[in-house]
Design goal:
The structure holds 2 protein chains of 2 kinds.
Chain A: H1 18-26, H2 39-48, H3 60-76, H4 118-122, H5 141-169, H6 173-176, H7 235-244, E1 248-249, E2 253-254
Antiparallel strand pairs in A: 1-2
Chain B: H1 6-14, H2 18-39, H3 44-58, H4 66-91, H5 98-102, H6 110-113, H7 120-127, H8 132-142, H9 148-155, H10 159-183
Helix pairs in contact in B: 1-2, 2-3, 2-4, 2-7, 2-8, 3-4, 4-9, 8-10, 9-10
Classes of the chains: A mainly alpha, B mainly alpha.
């Protein structure tokens, strides 16, 4: 077909002015009123801005779900950078379990594994130390340990009181008293009695129970087992011991129950020790042999010679 | 367009009212999807979801009328589409929506050849055959319902440039439709990048 034989264009395009173009783009131009060649364009643009297809609104449920999720997250936890919550309103971070290698742990929130420091421990990112751990009832081990110590001290005080009562109120108390007449004489824990005039064997050791009816009762040897016969001190001796010898009298310990002065042991008599033969040389010394390498020795140098086959 | 009750609807949506947000979504989602499908073929749904997430987060901070709101929504959508387009250009792949192509009139389909029967998606697909900047201007003006100043603000062009691009786009569309009606063939793509 030659160009001359081609049919003429039924709708030749005319130049489009600005106002018509604006009306076309804004959808205010009816296709029938459009200039030649632009009627189809007007229909096309009307179709492009037409009502929605059903396929274009299928995501409504998902969008509403996203909206609910975003609103819920916004009310509980901070969202993006446009969150209206302050830093102080953020929920406290849960303590992350510490690694098994000691004090350096790693973040559990997908972080880059930055070593944690003291600040992280303060912020609760690290498991509390052993000192800060608590049992199921929320009591620290240190508190439990303190309670145990207090209980032990209370028990010791009770035992001491019982001992004092036993020493002061029992029928043996007068007999157990030291010659100085101290109230805690021979009491439990009052200390070892000082060296009395009865000798070291007659001194009591301050046991918890009366060992027997005697002045020297105690763990030590008493007069019954070879000590001195019992003889109560006179009043003058008691007064002298009480006021003249100080608060800590000999044989009685402190009158206040405090720790007495440890008595000085009497010097032991120096006895000449019998000489013993030295265990290392039971045999008499042999005469020293002559030196092998001396110049006049005929055996000199023979030890180095090789043995003949 | 929602109309005079837009401010009340927007305030209710910002306070968490689902019905108000549903009204906003139904009003804007079709236009948003058409624009995004033409701008980033094959990624319209995902980009629309990302856009609505941003809109939801910023609802409480927005202040303005309905036209400003629409301009803001399309601005966010364009940013999402530009990011996706840049990633897609690095991958050197071209996504073509097959369902949009099926809506184009076939040569042997006289009923489909009629422009009256063209659907909205097919019309957008035809607009998408224009050069990118021309198609964007036409879509923002026709589908988004924005004026020249708003489109210029969104695209970063001067208003005179926007008018020129729209004028060229209309002329090219008229030529394509005239050629199609003469020959009876499918819509021929004019190619992207030319002006």
């Amino acid at each position: 077909m030659f160009p001359a034989e081609m049919p003429e264009d039924p709708s030749p395009m005319v130049p489009l002015d600005a106002d018509t173009a604006e009306r076309l783009l804004s959808g205010r131009l009816d296709p029938d009123d459009a200039p030649p060649g632009y009627a189809e364009v007007a229909r096309l643009l009307q179709a492009a801005s037409g009502p929605a297809d059903p396929a274009e609104v299928v995501g409504e449920a998902a969008a509403m779900s996203e909206f609910r999720t975003a609103r819920r997250r916004r009310g509980v936890a901070p969202g993006h950078r446009d969150r209206p919550w302050g830093r102080a309103a953020q929920p406290p971070a849960a303590p992350a379990p510490a690694s098994g290698r000691g004090g350096v742990g790693r973040r559990q929130d997908g972080g880059r594994g930055r070593p944690l420091g003291v600040g992280d421990r303060r912020r609760g990112r690290v498991r509390p130390s052993v000192r800060d751990r608590r049992d199921r009832r929320g009591v620290r081990p240190s508190v439990v340990r303190g309670r145990l110590v207090a209980l032990a001290l209370a028990g010791a005080v009770v035992v001491a009181g019982v001992g004092v009562w036993t020493a002061g109120g029992s029928p043996f108390s007068r007999e157990l008293r030291s010659p100085s007449g101290g109230p805690a004489a021979g009491g439990p824990g009052a200390g070892a009695p000082a060296a009395s005039r009865y000798g070291p064997d007659a001194s009591g050791a301050g046991s918890l129970r009366p060992a027997g009816p005697g002045v020297g009762a105690g763990t030590g040897a008493s007069w019954v087992t070879g000590g001195w016969p019992p003889s109560l001190p006179s009043a003058r001796e008691r007064a002298t011991a009480r006021h003249g010898a100080g608060a800590t009298s000999h044989g009685g310990g402190s009158s206040q129950g405090a720790k007495p002065i440890r008595p000085t042991k009497p010097p032991k008599p120096q006895q000449p020790k019998p000489e013993r033969p030295k265990p290392g040389n039971p045999k008499p010394e042999k005469p020293r042999p002559e030196k092998a390498n001396e110049p006049g020795n005929p055996k000199a140098g023979k030890a180095k010679e090789p043995a003949s086959p | 367009m929602i109309g005079p009750s837009f401010e009340a609807v927007l305030a209710a949506a910002a306070d968490g009212d689902e019905l108000a947000f549903r009204a906003l979504w139904r009003d804007l989602q079709p236009a948003l999807l058409r624009y995004l499908n033409a701008f980033a073929p094959g990624s319209g749904e995902d980009l629309a979801s990302e856009t609505w997430l941003r809109i939801i987060r910023g609802l409480g901070h927005f202040s303005g009328d309905e036209r400003a709101f629409r301009a803001w929504v399309f601005t966010v959508a364009r940013h999402r589409a530009v990011d996706r387009w840049r990633r897609g250009s690095r991958r050197h792949d071209e996504l073509v929506p097959l369902d949009a192509l099926t809506h184009l009139p076939a040569p042997d389909d006289p009923a489909g050849a009629a422009v009256d029967a063209i659907s909205g998606r097919a019309a957008v697909a035809m607009i998408a055959t224009l050069p990118r900047d021309q198609a964007e201007v036409v879509l923002l003006r026709v589908v988004g319902g924005l004026d020249v100043a708003e489109v210029a603000a969104i695209t970063g062009k001067r208003p005179g440039n926007v008018r020129v691009l729209a004028h060229r786009a209309l002329r090219r569309l008229a030529e394509q439709l005239a050629r199609q009606s003469r020959v009876g063939g499918p819509v021929e793509s004019g190619g992207r990048g030319g002006r």
